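Replying to the earlier thread about multi-chain prediction with a worked example.

Input:
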Amino acid sequence: MTYQLETAANPEKLRRVAIDPVSRVEGHGKVTILLDDQNKVHQVRLHIVEFRGFEKFIQGRPYWEVPVMVQRLCGICPVSHHLAASKALDIIVGAKKLTPAAEKLRRLMHYGQMLQSHALHFFHLCSPDLLFGFDSDVTQRNIVGVAAAHPETAKRGVLLRKFGQEVIRVTAGKRVHGTGAVPGGVNKSLTIAERDLLLKDVYTMVAWARDAVHLIQKVHTQDPGLYNSFGIFRSNFMSIVGHNGDLDFYHGTLRARDDNGKIIFDGVDYQQYDKYIEEEVKPWSYMKFPYLRSLGKEHGWYKVGPLARVQNCNQISTPFAEHERREFVDYAGGSPMHAPLAYHWTRMIEMLHAAEQIKELLHDDDLLSDDLMVQGERAMEGVGVIEAPRGTLFHHYRVDENDLVTMANLIVSTTNNNQAMNEAVRHVARRYLHGREVTEGLLNHIEVAIRAFDPCLSCATHALGKMPLEVELVDVEGTQIHSLSRA
Amino acid sequence: MTAPVVVFAVGNPSRGDDALGPELCGRLQKWLENQGLAGQVELIEDFQLQIEHALDLEGRQLALFIDAGHATPGPFTLERAHPAPLTGHSTHALEPQAVLEVFERTLHQPPPPAYILCVRGETFELGEGLSAAAEANLCQAFDLLCRLLVAPRLADWEAIATGG
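Result:
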């Protein structure tokens, strides 16, 4: 299956513009745009440069090592992999229902991850674009620029993220490489001192998260011409939803809606995910393209993440976030909002929900309990799914009688959004690059569209000198005529 | 009690020579304990530098960032770091200079004197161990770290960094 602008008719005759890697995106991504002599866009693709080799990395390992190992897949969201793997391995050890303490401690860890990841993304990846504008001086469009021009905003971002990291530290044991979740439960509860340390600041975090929602709401609604249309495309969307259709980042059943908001499937046990989701391989990309089986490759692709989750759920269980969800839904006018820049608004609603959930949990004495583990009948296969900051994350394992992993299949959030991100980039290229000279400001429009999805294109190699930003121009004969590097 | 020196060791232990930072961190921890210096130096290991690391600089007299380098001269370089805007465009992983800048902007005071020890690596693939070349570089870098941390003084660090 190919889409408009996915494959040009005569690519050998076109000029190539490459952004490699995409700036302010985790890891290495590459966008190629094939232009003809009149700068007309003929082909646009978002590539994954590096093969991740996740499954091979995990196969052959004892299953109990996996929740710790998988944290090394991503330096930005290690907790998401830690928890998704633990949930899959709960099934393997027969822990069909965790103790209340174990589930609440895992949830607390997960909300800490959501808070710190969403805070980082908004205050330090996207607010530079939003506060300065897409065409602003490139040296201003970074955290240092934000700190200089908006010192309170930047400081709140630092402290919100720090708070989220502290939640992770007390629940996982360490800020990185934590071991809190294990198959069947967790290995530590909170001490009273740890709980009180977090309680001291959590009310401030909730207040700042509310302010952040109002900030992005203001930015969005003040320029509807841009924010409601930039990079827009219609698609299905998917997420897990919790009890009664609540927004739930940790557990629930799969629900998918079409672009008009009509339910495609609901209440699906994610142990059966492969009966509902298929992954297509395309020759030009290492990253697969998932789609809903019932709709097929052409119509079955979907988006995940905050924009999908906030519109897929029936309600949010915490009061401030639910109020903001209703404001968002009212603004959208009763039909789903598909604009990629609306991801930022919904991401802040989710950050507020995470902060409220942390506050509620910190008043629950189950966090101090020592009843942390359960076991049951051993199984050979398990699937764990959570809603990671960037979207739905699947971990699927089979183990043998020696407890070694024989099969691992991961569908990470960014893979779920693969087609959606390509569509956003194509829309922006059509609108902003068509028939013009290619400037840094125009290229940044493409990056803005990609960053809205908060993709994680590769993981956790950030050695000095490993993350250049290169722009490459190749003429119709395939000769490189210009290149830039910003590293 | 805040340790007067903070050392950030950055890298992913499962990505080939990106493990140079964590590996040096592990060796340093044992060495500091053996030398009775654990209270003088705080070690912070992470996959990558981030904005919150700026807060770990507060109250320090000296700071050292250790990372693997892709194209750095071998076996390593030691350089003074000053607050500076990002030279790249990834705020998912900040450079040491940008962490210093975030400190200055958010805490409204100059950061402590800071240095970057960049150890040359060769390969960075998932699931690989340290390359032989990186292992050799690591041994030389560890010797230097012992010299820097046995009695940390700004003048000594500066002299070593500038070849004086």
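Chain A touches chain B through 51 residues (CB under 8 Å).

Feel free to reuse this layout for your own posts.
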